[in-house]
Write a structure and sequence with these properties.
- By secondary structure, the protein is an all-alpha fold.
- It is about 50% helix and about 0% strand.
- Helix 6 crosses helix 8 (about 160-175).
- The longest helix has 15 residues, at about 60-75.
């Protein structure tokens, strides 16, 4: 597995438990966040991360950049244009967001980093996490659908297959939390997304 280190200023502190209501947690399928992660040696440039994010919004720009690069490596396709990352970061940085923020995204990455060995298609789960809250309009009811459609469009532009884009699309729709997710990557995706529900009370 591709493992990335936890940044010194990461929003995740002494560990985050997974959501107690999620299927994989109840079955003992997911571990807690632990220390001792190892950063990969992929691209170190954080210009695109820092250029599109307000000061202080990203706890660890290098970590975020690494997860972006590795998502596409694991998917087996090329990396999207820098503008795509910029648009995503700008969306997650929107001041109107209260929970579905960059901090939530970074926390999801750290949970994925510990649970990725449980994934059937690790790249698809990681790409799905990048896009799962990409569109967030408090007055709309189709945020996940629009987020999933955006992911499909990007995957197709970098050479991803129809089956890959469809699976990522379905993973993102699973985060609507309107029904129990299917076993496998959808359940893992939901566990990661809802991990805050199992976190200790501050």
């Amino acid at each position: 597995p591709v493992r990335l280190s936890r940044g010194a200023c990461s929003p995740v502190g002494r560990g985050v438990q997974y959501a107690r209501r999620s299927p994989a947690y109840l079955s003992g399928g997911l571990p807690r966040i632990t220390s001792g992660l190892v950063r990969t040696t992929c691209c170190r440039s954080t210009d695109s991360v820092e250029a599109f994010c307000p000061q202080g919004r990203v706890a660890d720009p290098v970590l975020v950049n690494d997860f972006w690069r590795n998502a596409w490596v694991l998917l087996g396709v090329g990396t999207p244009r820098e503008e795509v990352l910029g648009a995503l970061l700008a969306s997650y940085s929107d001041s109107a967001r209260a929970y579905h923020t960059l901090q939530h995204l970074e926390e999801c990455f750290l949970r994925w980093n510990e649970a990725q060995s449980l994934a059937l298609q690790a790249g698809e789960v990681l790409v799905g996490l990048w896009f799962h809250d990409a569109v967030y309009d408090t007055h709309a009811s189709d945020n996940e659908q629009r987020s999933a459609d955006w992911a499909v469009e990007v995957i197709r532009t970098v050479g991803g297959s129809v089956s890959q884009s469809e699976r990522v699309h379905d993973l993102i729709l699973a985060t609507r939390h309107v029904a129990s997710p299917s076993p496998g990557d959808a359940a893992l995706m939901v566990d990661i997304d809802l991990g805050i529900l199992g976190a200790p009370v501050a």
